[in-house]
Every structure is written in C-alpha cells, then in structure tokens.
Hints:
- By secondary structure, this protein is an all-alpha fold.
- Helix content is 52%, strand content 0%.
- It contains 9 helices and no strands.
- The radius of gyration is 22 Å and the shape is extended.
Amino acid sequence: MRTVLLLIALAVPSLAVAQPPKDESRIKTTPEANSESLQGAAQSPLRDLNVVRTKIPPILLEVMHDPYQRPSPNNCRRIAELIRPLDEALGTDLDVIPAGEDEDLIDRGKTISYGVMAGVASSLIPFRGGVRMLTGAERHDRLVSAAITSGNVRRAYLKGLGESKGCNPPATPTHVKSATKYEPPRKGPKYPVR
C-alpha cells in the first residue's frame, strides 16, 4: 500500500512537467491511459476523482454533431483532407498495418502490470463507483467513448464515399488499390476428386 501511495505522490508533481508520450495527439480511453505507463497507472485515482481528464481533440467534438455530413466539395481531395485530422486524433485505421509495432511478451507484460497497478491504486478510493459518478469522471469517460465512436464512424463514412468515387488512399480503404485481386469463391470442391 505504501508503494502505491509513493507512486501516486511521484505522479502528482510530474503532472506539470510530464513528458509527452510518443503518440500524444491520439485520444485514449481511461483504461488505455491507465495501462500505458507507470505514470498513467499512478494517475488512476486522479482520473477517478476527475482531477486528470482525457482531452478530447476538437475535430472529434465537431464530428459528434453529424458524422454523416457530406463533404463540400464532394471530391477526392476534400475527402482526404477531412480524413487526415481524424487519423491524427484516432490513430491509424484498421486498413493500415502499423510498421514496427510488433508487441512482444515484455511489452504485454508491462501493459498488464501497469493495469494491475492502476487497479490497486484505484482500489484505495472507497466507494469508487459512487465517487466517479459524483465527480463526473464516469460521464466524461462516456463522452470520450462517444467521441471515439463518432470519429471512427465519420472516417469509415468518408472512406466509403471515397471508394465510391474511385479515390486513392487515404480517401479510400487501402484494400482497393492493393496488388492482390479479389477472387470470388469457386463453385464445387477446391481439389477435384476423380
């Protein structure tokens, strides 16, 4: 218990001089922020008390109003311009394979251990669920989740528009311009029997 309190004490002064993470612009949910680093795990009780909050990028707040708004002008260039800030806020899309981000067992172990530390640190708050509700932390987490969902829907909608217009990536999913050609499934057995 003393170790957890020490971790929290070390994290609080470092809030003012915190080093930016490598993908600072990408929005993270509370569980992701809690399990990304030692500082994130130590700040878990502060997130429960709504002292530390996830900042929602302005583009996601705009998108929440109408994720299906048609771009104006409705051309490939404009669609690509609208997708770029969404990629910065949300991270890479599902159709893009991130280069060099193979997670090994050590990284997985760190993530799990930081998550456990965050859970232990949060357990120090009695009636945690009620405290999160009273401080507004639960409501803010729902807003963050809604912003992420709206941003993902908007990006998928824009890529669908780009695909219908025959645009190039990033205004369309990358599978359209890939070297592999889609082949419909064959009728009959794969290996004919005599």
